[in-house]
Amino acid sequence: MKKTTIALALLLGAPLAAQTFELGLFAGQQQYPSIHTDVAPGTTLRMETDNKTVFAVRFGYSVVDLGPAQFQLTAGYQPESKATVKASLPGTPAVDVGEFKENHWSAGAMFNFKAFVAVGAGLEFRSERLSASFSGAGDSTTYNRVWARVNAGFAIPSPVVKPFVGLEVAFPLTTKSSGVDPSASSADALKAMAPKSQFGLYAGIRF
Hints:
Elements: H1 2-18, E1 21-31, E2 35-40, E3 43-49, E4 52-66, E5 69-88, E6 95-113, E7 118-134, E8 137-155, E9 162-172, H2 186-192, E10 197-206
Signal peptide: 1-20
Keywords: Signal
Protein name: Outer membrane protein beta-barrel domain-containing protein
């Protein structure tokens, strides 16, 4: 009975021993799609949102750590970013017409492969809060979708805290069409303007 109890305790304790924590910060560029609307026969209004520098914090919890392979659960938050929206008609210069805002919280999972250059890939569910204002009028909506994340970088060996830094790319698996019908709802128009990709630095500590 005593041996069985010890074996069970070791079995339950093994995953806990493998678990490590990660606290990271993403800083990089967020890109937006160019959308267009036919406002009259042969006349198309094109709207573009300037790329924006964004920051996000992320927490990771490794539930499996076997040799070079690591499976990690993640949670993150990106504070609100504000980007300028420009519009143009054929033959006319683009002018500022409003502001687009976005923030999100996320939850996901990553597979990390530890080597001289560590590589990670995973999926992340993001609940994005989108809003825009044009000529004093505004609207908002929530866009729930899955993003893919890929990163590569280096970790500094340390007995307790391991600093790391690398490059990360993220993009959504679903997007709205860039062609917006004039009769489309404001929610659909905002989703068409939602971010299409991110690229930047991801750095932090593991402990």
